[in-house]
Amino acid sequence: MKNDxxxxxxxxxxxxxxxxxxxxxxxxxxxxxxxxxxxxxYKRLEDLASCEEIVQDIFIDLWKxxxxxxxxxxxxxxxxxxxxxxxxxxxxxRRTTALIEENSSYYQRQDNTAGDLxxxxxxxxLIEQWVANLPQKRKEIFKMRYLDGLTTKEISDITETSQNxxxxxxxxxxxxxxxxxxxxxxxxLLILFNCK
Length: 196
What we know:
Structural class: mainly alpha
CATH class of the largest domain: Mainly Alpha
Distance between the termini: 63 Å
Shape: globular
Largest sheet: none
Number of helices: 9
Protein name: RNA polymerase sigma factor (Sigma-70 family)
Helix content: over 70%
Pfam family, one: Sigma70_r2
CATH topology of the largest domain: Rna Polymerase Sigma Factor, Chain: A
Family: Belongs to the sigma-70 factor family. ECF subfamily.
Number of domains: 2
Mean pLDDT: 76
Strand content: under 5%
Keywords: Sigma factor, Transcription, Transcription regulation
CATH architecture of the largest domain: Orthogonal Bundle
InterPro entries: RNA_pol_sigma-70-like, RNA_pol_sigma-70_dom, RNA_pol_sigma70_r2, RNA_pol_sigma70_r4_t2, RNA_pol_sigma_r2, RNA_pol_sigma_r3/r4-like, WH-like_DNA-bd_sf
């Protein structure tokens, strides 16, 4: 149940509450701006997973550091953060795409022995091992979302955990999984180049 003192959902009063570390104020801001920021970032990137991670990072940062930032207009602040993170993601994606395109002809020339070292089965096995080593709660939430296809609301109801907490667990998991896959990809590159 939402706190009565924020019943009007006035951004100024919510910002004051946030500065005082009031979780109720943060949750209302989260509910108010989450989907708007996600929609706006998706218009620019058209990659739902990246956009969800961007918005999640924005709200994690707002909760951790919002009291120390000089925020006068919370809506403008959130949209500025979103645009900056979208731009950074776009730049990173362009670099990754360029790297793949630059080396695609090289990959095609490699013999099957080198390619077989890290095929799709290896990547699947790596991810399964990574999931198995997650903390119990995070593992449970990750499997329900990405293996069972449940929504964050359904997971929240089943685990009796707030939807914000579920989304935080998923945000952290996806961030770490992406790092793992990037490391895997870089390892593959090193192996391929050393096999020449």
